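Suppose a colleague, Dr. K., hands you the sequence of a protein chain of 127 amino acids and asks what its three-dimensional shape might be. Before reaching for any lab equipment, you can write down a predicted structure in token form. Begin with the sequence itself:
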Amino acid sequence: MRKTSAALTVAAFIVALGAPAFAKTETVKGQIVDQSCFMKDKENNKGVDHKMPADTKDCAIACAKMGRPMALLTAEGKVYEIAGGLAADKNAKIVPHISHTVEITGDVMDHDGKMMITADALKMISR
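The predicted structure, expressed as tokens, is then:
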């Protein structure tokens, strides 16, 4: 009886730890931003050009081409790191859409308090 109880306790603990890793498919609409620059200056680093650390033309494009994380910023202010095929090859599919509003349908998960969306394609909404 004790072995069964211990096994069930361990199994429940493992499921509880893994629960945040389970993803669900959602469609999220937002603007593509350079995640690291946006988090440093949310007011001035939404577009292609950034104000931090100084006025930097095409900063987001340069960072994306280096493979730095890009994110989807919703109208509500939620930030989803973009992963999967969209982020492959140093963000090759994302670069033409930086600062544009897009819809991404993919697997959304909360990874240690950080939202992430994994997808292979996006739909352009507006420039």
